[in-house]
Design goal:
The protein is 69% helix and 3% strand. It has 39 helices and four strands. A two-stranded antiparallel ribbon has the order 1-2. The radius of gyration is 35 Å and the shape is elongated.
């Protein structure tokens, strides 16, 4: 089972190159995984129908009782056949629906196959958390599929609407899953169904939250607005997601949990009322639409309400009817959507007012649509008739609530008959006053997928009793009544058949009275739910803008005061309530006099910052406080922290200097005495509070109680010495990986906000030389400066050639060059890089680590840039910084996932061996993880230097060139 699910995702990754090489024929290859799943499920039919089940369990997160658990039982068997079988046919259909010139076809194919894999995992999942993961994957892939044509505003809006509604429902459902798991003591669905938790307020709350997610997924009122708008997606998406797969997920979840929770308040009233209302509202709306696809969309909403009523009723008999209706709905609604795509493809329109005479021009297409439509209208001997007869009879045999629901479903069935006739008449009938619609020939391969599904409706109708075994196995989870219902095409003359006849007659009358019905519907129409949704989003956006405008004033000092005030308020409240200072030893002023001297210097430098008006001087003084802190780490015996602090301060000061080139020399903020009087107490109290908390934390440490001893012992057990580095990349690697991802995202975000174009150098315009620069200084930067180009530059007197220390040194104007700096940069560049590699490799036993090593490597490239300018940086680092960042994240993530081989993410491995030159060596996954951190940090530093260094250089050069041109043009 796991292999089948993963095959979908694996082949989805290859979809783009397959489509590029094979064109639309690639869809036949992509149909293989769902076809294999269909064959596998069909082979397990007899076993599952007999009450058996296939399970696959792999312990995933044992501490949280979460497992990778897959289970094929009766309801899963039905849904696997639908999701995989219909998915196979839809992928085959795509090969004829699209052509090789369709835009972004590879991405679409990959998303559609990945959705099929996510849907397969959803219906097989036997763990609530695993089910939620696949649930949200279907949401994400449906968003991508609906928004396939992203250049159209309607597609983008519809995709965002579907994502918003289903994601909010999914998050609500997750809370319900967590509550249910806590109440039941397990997240295994089969275990919960076998031994449900006792009724309680928490259980009722969990049920309601889960139902919110299920109802939003299946477009049940009031969440039904997203499904009709999702018809902006290509027709194959509508046929698969919105007829056979995604919208069935909510109904499937209700059916899955009903045996255990149908009697829990308020399960039945909620589902019966909302399901009945959805069936009536969707069917009524379908009678007033002219787009064939929208008629089917609102019909789908109506049918989903019907399915919700049947699955939510929570009885043995209604469970059989529900499963039969789930199968029947997929088999008649999917081919109708596919036929709509064929009609649109052949004629160029879906407007039933413009279509005429297609029944004669496309008789085979008409025959398929009529077969599927009659099944939807529940006309014998098709499967839809047997399923609806079962629904009417089982609801009739129920209690009072079931009979009220029966009344609604009979009216809804009349509406179903009416919009079925409207669809068939609008698509294929010859209309008076409308010329026959021209249509091209439909290939047999194009019509085959819907024909197969329509044929299944025709075959399974007379043979519906054959389905009793599987459906009865699912229904057996409910109490079996004295006279259980059995599926059959003909039960004789009875109330159910009379109700069906009443529904047919009512539907025909509604269809014949189309004009009055449309006028009545227009008068009774509620305000558009879609419009209300848009207004709600607009109001939310305006509120957010107002809150942002009120809070984000653009003043850094205000932000700091606000942050410190909130933190201090919470911290002081905790200190006052808990009184943690009780038992803490009296603080010592210092351990050695050197610490006191360094602390005094730091305080003095900090006080000097208060009166500085020049930005550069403030940066230098702030940097000195950082270096002083690093010196305190050295005196305290923390070389790792000291080394990191030194590197961070160095890089930070350089970045500040680069930024200050484009900022005013002096601070422009007015230093009002009142402002200082308000800010100083906050700053002083903040510093005092931090010092007080640090003293309490240090005072409560005990030799036998701290976690440090256990960590030291664990590190020594692995034959290592550096506790700090090992903690970062092994014992707490999750934190490091998360911080690395945040660092990468922050760097990319900041540089992208500064410049709204690519951070590579290839797309820039040529830069004009500064006055006095060498003529070749205007060369276009392509990410690297070839030495061949620079070698051809004149370098002075030929008899006394000047030594070139840097590759791009000649591109600078002579008055702006520093030969000493170039020589120093040339001599230090490679040693600094070697030092960074040394710090990376020795981190397990000596001070160092990937973070520090990455900063040191970044300093090496910064040195090249400061000495030779942006051309020198391009020559030193010819690759895009994002390459290093991406490789670092990829390597760290790969090492983390590699631990799954031993059962858990980030499981540490150590290899001991002997190399001929090196001797005895050992290599651990922590080192590989640290290499990823090294590459990531190096990429971030290069990204920042290119954004704040090279780009600003270009701006300065362009501005200087423009001033020079104006001066030259002035005298003329």
């Amino acid at each position: 089972m796991t292999a089948l699910v993963l095959c979908h995702f694996a082949l989805a990754l290859c979809a783009a190159p397959l489509v590029r090489w094979c064109g639309t024929r690639a869809f036949l290859v992509l149909a293989l995984p769902p076809a294999a799943a269909t064959v596998w499920a069909a082979g397990r039919w007899s076993t599952v129908a007999a009450g058996g089940a296939d399970t696959h369990v792999w312990t995933w997160l044992p501490a949280y009782r979460v497992d990778w658990a897959l289970r094929l039982d009766a309801p899963a068997e039905l849904m696997v056949l639908l999701a995989a079988g219909v998915g196979t046919l839809v992928l085959v259909y795509c090969g004829s629906y699209f052509d090789d010139r369709s835009p972004q076809l590879g991405r679409f194919a990959g998303n559609l196959l990945a959705f099929a894999g996510a849907m397969l995992g959803l219906v097989l999942a036997d763990d609530l958390i695993l089910l939620y993961i696949f649930w949200e994957l279907t949401t994400v892939f449906s968003y991508l599929l609906i928004g396939q044509t992203s250049d159209h505003k309607r597609n983008r809006r519809s995709a965002l609407q579907a994502l918003t509604v289903t994601t909010l429902g999914g998050l609500t459902m997750l809370v319900g899953f967590l509550l249910l798991g806590q109440e039941a003591g397990t997240y295994r669905i089969s275990a919960i169904l076998a031994d449900p938790p006792p009724a309680s307020g928490a259980l009722s709350a969990a049920v309601v939250l889960i139902l919110v997610g299920a109802l939003s997924k299946s477009a049940i009122w009031p969440f039904s607005l997203w499904l009709p708008n999702a018809m902006a997606a290509p027709t194959p998406v509508s046929a698969y997601l919105h007829a056979a797969a995604m919208v069935k997920a909510g109904v499937y979840l209700i059916a899955r949990l009903a045996p255990a929770f149908a009697e829990v308040t308020p399960w039945r009233p909620l589902l019966l009322i909302l399901g009945s209302a959805t069936m009536l509202l969707g069917g009524w709306r379908a009678l007033r639409l002219n787009d064939l696809k929208l008629v089917l969309a609102h019909g789908t909403v109506s049918q989903l309400g019907f399915l919700t009523v049947l699955t939510g009723a929570g009885r043995y008999n209604t469970a059989i009817a529900a499963t039969a209706m789930i199968l029947g709905h997929a088999l008649f609604k999917a081919p109708l959507f596919l036929v709509t795509g064929i009609v649109d493809h052949a004629t160029g329109t879906r407007d039933l007012r413009r279509l005429s005479g297609l029944g004669r021009r496309l008789p085979a297409v008409c025959a398929v649509a009529v077969a599927a439509g009659l099944s939807m209208a529940a006309v014998p001997p098709l499967l839809g008739f047997a399923a609806k007869e079962a629904a009417f009879q089982t609801l009739l045999d129920g209690d009072t609530a079931d009979r009220w629901a029966l009344a609604a479903t009979v009216v809804g069935s009349a509406l179903t008959t009416a919009y079925t006739l409207r669809y068939l008449w609008g698509a294929f009938a010859r209309k008076p006053g409308v010329p026959d619609t021209p249509a091209h020939r439909v290939p047999a391969a194009f019509l085959a997928p819907p024909a197969v599904l329509a044929l299944a409706c025709l075959v399974l109708g007379p043979e519906v009793a054959w389905l009793q075994g599987l459906f009865g196995t699912y229904a057996a989870q409910f109490p079996v009544p004295a006279h259980p219902y059995h599926l059959a095409l003909w039960h004789g003359m009875g109330p159910a058949l009379l109700l069906s006849c009443a529904a047919w007659a009512g539907g025909v009358l509604l269809f014949l009275a189309a004009g009055p019905v449309a006028r009545t519907g227009a008068r009774l129409a509620w305000r558009s739910a879609d419009r209300n949704f848009g207004r709600l989003l607009l109001a939310l956006e305006r509120t957010a803008l107002q809150c942002t405008g009120f809070v984000q004033r653009g003043s850094l000092s205000v932000y700091l005061v606000t942050t410190l005030s909130v933190v201090l308020a919470g911290q002081i409240a905790v200190l006052v309530v808990d009184e943690p200072w009780t038992g803490a030893p009296a603080p010592r002023l210092w351990d050695t006099p050197a610490q006191a001297a360094v602390a005094v210097l730091i305080c003095a430098v900090g006080l000097l910052c208060l009166g500085v008006r020049r930005r550069m001087k403030a940066v230098v003084l702030a940097g000195l406080t950082g270096y002083g802190t690093a010196l305190l780490f050295v005196l305290q015996g923390a070389p790792d922290l000291a080394l990191t602090q030194f590197c961070v301060e160095t890089v930070s000061m350089i970045v500040f200097v680069l930024v200050l080139r484009r900022m005013p020399v002096l601070f422009e903020e007015n230093f009002v005495l009142l402002r200082r009087a308000l800010r100083m107490p906050v700053a002083l109290v903040g510093g005092a509070a931090v010092a007080f908390v640090v003293w309490i934390m240090a005072g409560h440490r005990r030799a036998g109680d701290s976690a440090g001893d256990a960590m030291v012992e664990e590190v020594a057990h692995h034959g290592l010495k550096d506790v700090v580095a090992t903690i970062l990349v092994d014992l707490r690697a999750w934190d490091t990986m998360g911080e690395s991802a945040v660092l990468a995202a922050a760097a990319v975000g900041v540089t992208s906000l500064i410049y709204l174009h690519r951070r590579t150098d290839g797309a820039d315009q040529p830069v004009l030389p500064l006055p006095g620069d060498h003529p070749e200084a205007a060369l276009r930067t392509q990410g690297s400066v070839s030495s061949g180009t620079l070698a051809g530059l004149p370098s002075g007197d030929e008899s006394a050639p000047e030594r070139t220390w840097l590759a791009a040194g000649a591109t600078l104007a002579p008055e702006r060059r520093s030969i000493v700096l170039e020589v120093v940069a040339r001599l230090l560049y490679h040693p600094i890089l070697v030092l960074s590699v040394y710090l990376l490799m020795c981190a397990e036993n000596l001070p160092g680590g990937g973070f520090v090593a990455g900063l040191v490597a970044g300093v090496a490239f910064i040195t090249r840039y400061l000495a030779g300018g942006r051309h020198e940086l391009a020559d030193a680092a010819p690759f895009a910084p994002g390459l290093f960042t991406g490789l670092g994240l990829f390597l760290s993530t790969a090492v983390a996932l590699g631990g799954l081989a031993e059962g858990t993410v980030l499981h540490g491995w150590t290899w001991h061996g002997h190399l001929p030159v090196w001797g005895d060596v050992h290599l651990s996954t922590a080192v590989l993880f640290d290499c990823g951190v090294y590459l990531l940090v190096l990429g971030v530093v290069l990204d920042i230097v290119r954004a704040l260094g090279s780009r600003i250089d270009r701006h300065i050069e362009r501005a200087a060139a423009q001033r020079a041109r104006r001066r030259e043009a002035g005298p003329a």
